[in-house]
Please model this.
Amino acid sequence: FEEARTTLRQLEYNTMHGEDEESPENLVLSDIVDKLNIQFEDAMNDLWQTLMTQELYLHEAIEESTTNFHRKIAELMSKFVEQSQSFFVQLREISVHFSENMTEIVTRFISTKLALQDFDDVPSDLRMCMEDRDAILNLIAG
Model:
């Protein structure tokens, strides 16, 4: 750029001071400007080629990273769903086990209290339900 600027100034200076555009010095300066123009175009073309190559590599790398990301997310999601399903199965089993144990304990408690006719330590809310065994079992199931 500096060389082109200097050459163009010299050419302009010569033209302003009355030299003919066809003079040998001006022709040499014009040739220099043309060569600089060609060099600049070549440099721009090389730069463009380099940038396009880098863009292609970058695009391929981003595409590969995106594909890997999607694959990893899909794997993580499937593992999460699988583990969640396993935990819910365990939770259902524990809930059923708890309900069965609670039913057995309450049935034994009520049977013992009814057999002994010992209602002193039975809470008043439970006393009202003790005669209705189905209501108690429904409460336990709930």
In short: The CA atoms of residues 76 and 82 lie 10 Å apart.
